[in-house]
Amino acid sequence: MFQPVSESLPNRPAYMFVDGACLQEMIQAASERYLEPGFVFEIDYRALRGTHAKVYYYDAIPRSGADASDEQIEAKAQELGLIGRQDGYHVRSGEAVRRKKAWTQKMVDVQLAVDMMSLAARGMYSSATLITGDLDFKPLVDALVDLGLDITLIYPAGHTNNDLIAAADRAVEANVDWFFACATQRFLKAYPSPQYQFNHRATDMRPAAPGELVHAWQADGWGECRLLSRDGLYEVITSEIPEDPHHFLWTRFDRIARGRLWTLARFGLVLPEEVTG
């Protein structure tokens, strides 16, 4: 009688499978949305791996000749070499060719699907995390779930079909919090992660303790907003949050320019133009 893999081999570890091209696009998009010009999220691959026993990383190296310069080929080869040297990582590479103005990968997606299914069929893992936003992987996810495997999808915000999201057992949006959680310490030292809390007005109000008032304004859905300066940092405190007058937002950042990007992209809260510093 057929038994699902996860029931017949319950103690097998968790694996991760990464669509490298998708991850790099996610990094670029998140950097442009949340960071100041000139800054790009730098991924700590140990943090990305987390508790997964193995990570299989799929990407393509541009084909030599007219399709790419020697510099592009060397840069991608070095990037994949660095990833492949990380503990627990295994890189599978194909070729990338230019179609009109865009690069198209060859063999990469098929290799990911074959590996993920083959390793599952051999009982090598009982749960897996897949990083992608490509709807073409939905039949693969459906098949793995039907085998009894536990599948988590990490997907790019705003660019993933709902059918793929629904197919996985759980889905995690790669939002700004996810990127800061996966960032290197070197990046976080140069670009500290903004902090925030949604607090109930009846609970501990210490985050709203007085600081030097820089600016105050009213914002639809947020009520009275105050920008404070404290210990070389800035804080924004609202009197409510959209659709919930009983909670307020507290957020802290190190520079006004970063705070302006952060509050708008993360919460939709606009710092007035007269706020500078």
Automatic annotation (TrEMBL):
Superkingdom assignment: Bacteria
A GO term for molecular function: RNA nuclease activity
Domain NYN residues, every copy: 57-172
Protein name: NYN domain-containing protein
